[in-house]
Amino acid sequence: YLVGDAGVLLTRVLSVKRTPKKRFVIVDAAMTELIRPALYGAYHEVLAVSPRPGSVKADLVGPVCETGDFLARDRDLPLLEAGDLVAIRGAGAYAREMASTYNGRVPAAEVMVAGDEALLVRRRPEYDEALWQFDEVFWD
Predict the structure, then answer these.
(1) pLDDT in tens, the chain (140 residues)
(2) Residues paired with residue 112 on neighbouring β-strands, in sequence order
(3) Taking the domains of the chain in order of start, what are their residue ranges?
(4) Catalytic positions
(5) What is the distance between the alpha carbons of residues 130 and 127, in angstroms, rounded to a whole number?
(6) How many CB atoms within 10 Å of residue 1?
(7) Do the bridges between strand 55-61 and strand 23-27 make them parallel or antiparallel, or are there none, so unpaired?
(8) Least packed by Cβ within 10 Å: which of 8, 70, 78, 93?
(9) Rounded CA gap, 131 and 137, in Å?
């Protein structure tokens, strides 16, 4: 089994939304991949893979249309822009086991890393593969 500190969730910034009172960094991961922050306020360290100097207070949120779809709330985050890769630490214990396909999301791929070697241990399914449970549904 994997302990929490052994896993990292990698996600990419889709956009940054600024309002007069708040900044939102929207990433392509969601509560469907890591529900612990939304479910019970779990803290996960957020790092920019290619950091720039400075930080800003913001929420790190996913693209799922739910008010609870956040990965970090009201945190000093690295300065991030669309396209940046973000690492969310401590995702090894429960991320995959608690993940869901809610809102049509497909499960994330899983990669095992040892030193400078990486091995794909579970690929991300194609969207049509994720719909297998509906194969027997007949529509009028």
Answers:
(1) 457 777 888 999 999 999 999 999 999 998 888 889 999 899 999 999 999 999 999 999 999 988 899 999 999 999 999 999 999 998 877 777 787 777 777 777 778 888 898 888 877 777 676 666 666 665 55
(2) 119
(3) 4-105
(4) 65
(5) 5
(6) 6
(7) parallel
(8) 93
(9) 11
